[in-house]
Amino acid sequence: MNNELVSIITPAYKAQHTILETIKSVQAQEYVNWEMLIIDDGSPDSTSEIVAQAALDDPRVRLIRQKNAGPAMARQKALDNANGRYIAFLDSDDLWLPQKLQRQLAFMSNKNVIFSYTSFRRIRSDGSGLGRRIRIPVSLDYNDLLGNTAIATSTVIIDRKEAGELRMTKTYYDDFVLWLGLLKRGHRAYGLDEDLMRYRVIAQSVSRNKKNSARMVWKTYREIEKLSLLASIKSFAFYAFNAWRKYRVF
Length: 250
Known about the structure:
The chain is an alpha/beta fold.
């Protein structure tokens, strides 16, 4: 197990009610060599002030402000300022369990993995109601991922040294597009089937709008991945089934 720096990428917009708890979940990590880059995406609330105070108390927390440009550009700004070999993604309303970095980095080192993800459980917006464990496949290639919802953003760690340049695309599912781009290069994503993250379900979140989400997945297939109509239909059918199976029970 090495002691490489991990850069944690956290876009934040109107996150005043959750961001401090998210930061504390990082500070509670058993693995301590990290930097947390929080990009305040022009929040009109007190997100920046909360993060600024956290940064004063812990220099590993870094606040970067930008005009509102959306999560893709916020993540890209963080990537441009990241110093770590490993890039971990954590959304501003999600939480890590204390063993998350330690266990996942050990898994990556032992298995010689450059792109990994883990299983997790959902919680409600107020932090209550621990959901069932969301199990994950052992691994995914590009074609597998086209029809799967297995990779939760806040579980991902990427070895940037081995993966190469990471560039975000300004689109609705910028994270999904990034994963697809990495796998298209010939890499494979590997799952650590351990419960290491809490995904907060925000009722008003755009990602909970299933009709819009479905439309954006289709758009990703046709406009970004340039899949044929038949390939898009096939991938979408698998994607919809896996999404239903994943979300049918809290």
